Amino acid sequence: MSKRVAYYGIFASLAILMGYVEAMIPLPLPPGIKLGLSNVVVVLCMYIMDLKSAFFISIIRIFISALLFKGFVSMWYSLAGAVLSFIVMAVLFKSKGVSIIGVSALGGVFHNIGQVIVAAILLGRNIVIYLLPVLMISGVVTGVLIGIVSRYTVSYLQNRNL
Amino acid sequence: MKKGDIILIVVVLAAAALLYFSGILSPGGKGAEAQVYVDGQLKETIDLSKDGEYTFETENGVNTLKIENGEAKMISADCPDQICVNHSAVSKENESITCLPHKLIVEIHGGEKSHVDVVAQ
Fold first, then answer.
1. Which residues in chain B touch residue A94, judged by CB atoms under 8 angstroms apart?
2. Which of A12, A161, B50, B97 has the fewest CB atoms within 10 Å, measured from its CB?
3. Predicted ipTM of the assembly
4. pTM to 2 decimal places
5. pLDDT tens, position by position, A16-59
6. CATH fold label, B33-109
7. A25 vs B: CB within 8 A
8. Residues of chain A positioned with their CB less than 8 A from the CB of B12
């Protein structure tokens, strides 16, 4: 039990930190496209702990990031991306034919789709859906990269019997 | 990497390509005007052929849009994320610049070969 509590603490703070670090590093990416580093922690949590813990980490990260840095308008935006992406990742996680890379790739894609939907609702304008093709492709690319990082991290942690 | 991964990735990429190239979600030709919406309400329609700077002051914040050479670019905003300011200039029909914290969007409409834009309406 106490081991789980410690894990929650470590993973939640790591996820928050990842988001912060990502905002600090200027990457030559078009606006609106993000690497999604904190998803490494969510995917990691899914494979090392369980779905419920991963969902908890994913949600708590958004609340705390909103409280500390981002404010609450962007919270709805992040929340929609995170929840939609989590549902898709959870379904793929349960299916046998998909590895951590496919889980993370589709997570990236649906994170972006969720954000576009909320942007359309918040703005009251549908034109933002024209961004979907580009955001679907960027979601796959960043999701695969995040999946590769997660796969190495999971095998590293499992070899150390954590 | 499993076979399922590859199938999923190919399906998403194909769907994106289909949406983009089929015309469903493609940018159109060169646009004629920029429409600025705040909170879903049309604030101003600006002719892209006339250069100038336009400032939008709303209860949410201040944005300044610059029109130059038929392109619209957000040159300043007092929002925290600056995503709209970092956005490249837009000039094609169906392109947009969004400032989410201010609930402001700049949309390009009325291309030369314009047809009614059912999706945006």
1. none
2. A161
3. 0.88
4. 0.88
5. 999 888 888 877 777 778 898 999 999 999 999 999 999 999 99
6. mini-chromosome maintenance (MCM) complex, domain 2 (2.60.320)
7. no
8. 105-106, 109, 136-137, 139-140
